Amino acid sequence: MLLAIDWTELAQQTVIGLSSGGLWALLALAIVLIYRSTGVINFAQGEMAMFSTFIAWSLINHGLSYWEAFLLTLAISFAGGIGIERAVIRPVERAPVLTIVIVTIGLLFVVDGAARWFWSSETRSLPNAFSTRPITIAGVAFSIQDLGNIAVSLGVVALLAVLFRFTKVGLALRASAVNPEESRLLGIRVSWMLALGWGLAAAMGAVSGMLTAPALASFDQNLMQPVLLYALAGAVLGGLESPLGAVVGSLLLGVFVNLTGTYIGWIGTDLRLPLAFAVILGVLLVRPSGLFGRPSVRRV
Amino acid sequence: MNRALGIGLWVLAVAAGLAVFLLAPHFVSDFHSRDLARAGVFFIAIVGLNLLTGYTGQISLGHGALMAIGGYTTAALVVHEHWRDVWTIPLAGIAAGVVGFIIGLPALRLSGIYLALATFGFAVAMPSLLKKFSGLTGGSQGLRFLESAPQQVTGLAGTVTIFGHTMTQNHFLYYLTWSIGIVGFAIAWLIVRGGFGRVVRSVRDSEIAAVSSGVNLARTKTVSFAISGVYAGVAGALLAIQDEIVNPLSFTFLLSILILVGAVVGGLGSLPGLVFGALFVQYLPTISTHVSTRAGVPDFVYGVAIILVMILLPTGVGGLLRRVARPLTTRLYTRP
């Protein structure tokens, strides 16, 4: 019976979808941040997030609590992101866009290789960030972890929005993304703004990784590969130019993928990703720049 | 006089290239000619991608999936229909060409990075789709030539005789792949030099200007995708013939990415450098494992090499060749 929908089940599945969508949203936001300022998709974003998660795991193994490790990892990732930009992206700043994209693919191999090199392939797990006890709202039992993930994701997004909208650095970041030449004339150090963008993106990826890992019984160096693919899909769905779009796109995708996977048996788990991309293709054909993107207008 | 010299040099270069092609397998072990044959597969796919990305300006991250179409067409014909493996190659090319044409349709609406990611989605989805439709594709087991139709595998007996020449199976695969590669290269060269080449370059450089000059954008893009797809399909067919098996893991999205890496390293919008792109993609992983086989180190070295090449040669080997060749050719063709 199609009409006999179990509303409790539906609400639960929607929250689970929002929870995973929220984690994708953070990585999608990282991708959008770099895309806006350089026109480049950073294919290494997922692996960088995985690396951060491994750092957090090591810190916790050395006796730190989850949230201490969390904050310390954020700082390390931020510095690491800036370092990576200075070391490998800056030398190709003026090269064709595809050249920079290939550099990020090289970076994907470097970071992935480094993680396999430094940490063995044994499986490991992160402690839960939130209590595993379920709470009941209006007769529906939700896991605190799912709600916590959604809260942290939205919190990070809000912080970022505040940074961009109300601070001088945020203004400089936006200015150098919109018009690098003029920003340079106004005394903004555009090249450093790119580095700062990479640092922020790396930190956001780290949050995504550190929240993704605890939900799994164990994780290894492949942790963020599926997340990167969904984040890319979410970012494209929302429109690569738009941070808000990345968040909304990822959340929508999370709910959509989880609901179709649950209710349409034929799709199950193995066709989720193809389905996600099929939907995006459909959306793009109607709105070629994503849901929130604006078509670019150019002078000829 | 100078023109004659120019043509002479050109003929010399072609002759040298052909000599290398004919003699290369005799300087390496039989086993290594198989690696060279694999490099030829990459070469064909990269030439095809370069026609699309380098000359028409449409980025595709889905060429691995087009190779899958070619490879599975070959495998299905051999395993289910018992065709001789080499005769399936044209059909594999056509099948991938048709799919390439269909993938090209969104290109009429999407541009730049959105198109790249839409094609990437196709590449990501391909392995799951291959697993799902297991009746035709054998699911995650894939299709094995040797179990289902060993008599259709050329050279299974150990040697192959063509026109009175007897050669080992590995040499046969090498000559087969690179002969097709050279023919494909020549066709690509004729395409980019001809009228259609000018049309696609105008689309790459400015779509609006191209349309204003009467270029049919829809036809140009979809036909480019189709041509590029034929190359990818033939490459996929050859990959299947070399491996004597296809399975979803041979065609992950990493393959699409590697083809793009090869095309950019070889030099977009240039043909001679692509051989280096193919050799780079084929041999770098092997070279990396020579550095150290410790887990992760080969990947690390591989990535560092990609980054260094891009920093040192931002326009690829093709760009370098152009820079080296320009003083030479300008001197040859300037009239006193």
Task: Describe this protein's structure.
The complex is a heterodimer of chains A (300) and B (336). With 300 residues, chain A is mostly helical. Chain A has a single domain (7-286), classed as ABC transporter involved in vitamin B12 uptake, BtuC (Orthogonal Bundle). In chain A, 69% of the residues lie in helices and 3% in strands. Chain A contains 11 helices and 2 strands, in the order H-H-H-H-E-E-H-H-H-H-H-H-H. Chain A has helices at residues 7-38, 45-61, 66-89, 97-118, 144-166, 168-178, 180-185, 190-212, 225-238, 243-263, 272-286; strands at residues 134-137, 140-143. Chain A has a two-stranded antiparallel ribbon with strand order 1-2. In chain A, a hairpin with a 2-residue loop joins strand 1 (134-137) and strand 2. In chain A, helix 2 (45-61) runs antiparallel to helix 3. Chain B is mainly α. Chain B has one domain: ABC transporter involved in vitamin B12 uptake, BtuC, CATH 1.10.3470. In chain B, the strands form 2 sheets. A two-stranded antiparallel sheet of chain B has the order 1-4. In chain B, strands 2-3 form a two-stranded antiparallel sheet. In chain B, helix 2 (30-55) runs parallel beside helix 8 (169-193), helix 3 (63-79) runs parallel beside helix 5 and helix 12 packs across helix 13. Chain B starts with a helix and ends with a helix. The mean pLDDT of chain B is 85. Chains A and B meet through helix 4, helix 9 and helix 11 of A and helix 5, helix 12 and helix 14 of B.
Outline the secondary-structure elements:
The complex is a heterodimer of chains A (300) and B (336).
Chain A: H1 7-38, H2 45-61, H3 66-89, H4 97-118, E1 134-137, E2 140-143, H5 144-166, H6 168-178, H7 180-185, H8 190-212, H9 225-238, H10 243-263, H11 272-286
Antiparallel strand pairs in A: 1-2
Helix pairs in contact in A: 1-5, 1-8, 1-9, 1-10, 2-3, 2-4, 2-8, 3-8, 5-6, 6-8, 9-10, 9-11, 10-11
Chain B: H1 2-27, H2 30-55, H3 63-79, H4 89-104, H5 112-132, H6 134-137, E1 143-144, H7 145-148, E2 159-162, E3 165-168, H8 169-193, H9 195-205, H10 207-212, H11 217-243, E4 245-246, H12 253-266, H13 274-291, H14 297-312, H15 316-333
Antiparallel strand pairs in B: 1-4, 2-3
Helix pairs in contact in B: 2-8, 2-11, 2-12, 2-13, 3-4, 3-5, 3-11, 4-11, 8-9, 9-11, 12-13, 12-15, 13-14
